[in-house]
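Here's what a typical entry looks like (AP-1 complex subunit gamma):
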Amino acid sequence: MVVSSLKLHDLIEEIRGAKTQAQEREVIQKECAHIRASFRDGDPVQRHRQLAKLLYVHMLGYPAHFGQMECLKLIASPRFIDKRVGYLGAMLLLDERHDAHLLITNSIKNDLNHGIQPVQGLALCTLSTMGSAEMCRDLATEVEKLLLQPGPYVRKKAILAAVHMVRKVPELSDIFLPPCAKLLHEHHHGILLGTITLIMELCQRSPAALRHFQKVVPKLVQILRTLVTTGYSKEHGISGVSDPFLQVQILRLLRILGRNHEESSETMNDLLAQVATNTNTSRNAGSAVLFETVLTIMDIRSAAGLRVLAVNILGHFLLNSDKNIRYVALTSLLRLVQSDHSAVQRHRSTVVECLRETDASLSRRALELSLALVNSSNVQDMTKELQAFLKSCPPDLRADCASGILLAAERFAPTKRWHIDTILHVLTMAGTYVRDDAVANLTQLIGGAQELHAYSVRRLYHALARDISQQPLVQVATWCIGEYGDFLLENCEETEPLKVEEEEVLALLEKVLQSHMSLPATRGYALTALMKLSTRLQGDTNRIRQVVSIYGSCLDVELQQRAVEYNMLFQKYDHMRAAILEKMPLVEHSSPQADEKAKGSREVAPLSEDQALVPTEPQTSKLSDLLDLLDDTSGDTRQPPPLQPSPEGGVVHLLDLPSTPPPPASIPTLKVFEREGVRLNLSFTRPPGTPALLLITVTTTNSSEDDVTHFICQAAVPKSLQLQLQAPSGSTATARGGLPITQLFRILNPNKAPLRLKLRLTYNHFGQSVQEIFEVNNLPVETWQ
């Protein structure tokens, strides 16, 4: 008995009625068999019904590739019902990866010239959805003709098809320039909205188009002014705002046309002020228009008063009850804080209030903006607010908050004592969340403030006595006690009188050594502090000798080695112990301002000496396998110059006098990739302690008008090298020079072989997927010698 094929409605009901996935698969397999048999029979009457069922099966995730050729047959059919299903199938089943999509080019061309608007609409929708570059080149002339058709139905769809063509083939921009100027005089909402979108695409991809449309800025200003005052049509108003979607698009286009163009910016200044002051923000539609107005004011060359008005609008957004609006305001203020710092400072109290938000994304943005607002005049007040936030902030924000406070204190500290107190406060509350260099920075700061040695060691001793769980705090405290422990036994005018016995100090350090919370590095600090106290304190050193001898058999090799060496000091070199364990010499530490000046001088010097590095153009490669790279030895290899022998050569042992190694030579930053505003820079660091290790920081910036998303950077090196890729800071580089993406490469090169890199970049930009593979062969010699 032959079971007849189901109708589409019956098929949907039967699939939805399946109780298990196996039953669903059984129903679909049976119906797919009927569909295949019908296609083989070639019944033209049933073809569109069978394809409709197949498209439903495809939307459920089951394979439907065998219906591709049936789509072409239905498109070529003269019946509208067949064309409708055929074009729908083409949009769902075909794309640029299938050669079959090229076969419908002629059918689309015939339908565009058909003269029947519904058929033309189907062809234009299909072209806008899956048209390849070849199809766009072949059909551009037909689309251009349809842009000026009398009916708005076809013109709307032709404009959208033109947008797709410009994105696919930017060189077609010149074809659509004349029609756009005429379409701006239309009063139809859909045509105007599509035309504005098309002009934006043309301006972003063609400098000639940008210059051409800067002449129509007065017309755009007139359209927007009419929208604000009267409106084109009441049916497109939302919550009392006249056609907000069209207003937003016009503002975005004005932002593109007015950027770095004085005349256009001056033309739109009055209008932007009118929109900013008259728009109702009680509903989301008005807030969206006002937000786009603010972005336009900030991007063009607007008047100073207008920019202050824009910042005040964002400050007003911070008081809105909608969390999304507050988040947008914080993000926008964070972008403006560098260019309009004083204007953003007026809203500092409101930004600080946002730190108390329960929403994690809001508090994170508020924290970033608060740290950006810190300067020399408000550092003490802002630090108090940030420290209060540090007590109650979520764990995932503590590291950022603690690091931000330490950086702000390092840059803007009014006095050394305040700087030390601030760092101690952070270490006490969130010591486990601070950056790795916090311990070294604080010990350097205390060592350089000779007048605060007694004050610092007493503060740290009290903090250590209260809590030994914060490891960075314990490390700084034990180091300071070892260096300046003799001040604990003296009176200090700057702190409250406290009598400390030698036995108490030694007992506290032994407690740190025996604590299960102490890291191996912390025990090393404590053991060295005990050893140094043997020359600082006046009492008997037998207790210290006993503790040191105990750790001579410790399981930790580093700690055991220290203990054995210290025992040798007691036994064989006791006459040298006092000289060897003297206080650490003062180490010069440059301020961040000095570092910036030095960096600027390094950037200017090569230009003045004609030694600037000229980056080569990235070489694209058609190799499909990234890891099969750089193992060939063909080609000329530049021989590195001989290394100059170090005048301070030799191994520094524990018993040698302290010496400062020479600072490593700086390696210039290298630009290796740039395309449509996306730039990739490599900066290099050679750690002094491990010369075979090279750290490469890959910084990706985006100066274009569209965000770069789903960014992935992969790398390969020759087989004689070892490469480790750290996780990137993110996958999105925001537009117009927003937050960059950083990633760290660790390359181990023990044989000092010439270094080469092959990089593969994949990301989405301007709605397209981009993949670039190229080699970097011009790395500085200092990176591998």
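Residues 596-662 have pLDDT under 50 and may be disordered.

More examples are in the samples folder.
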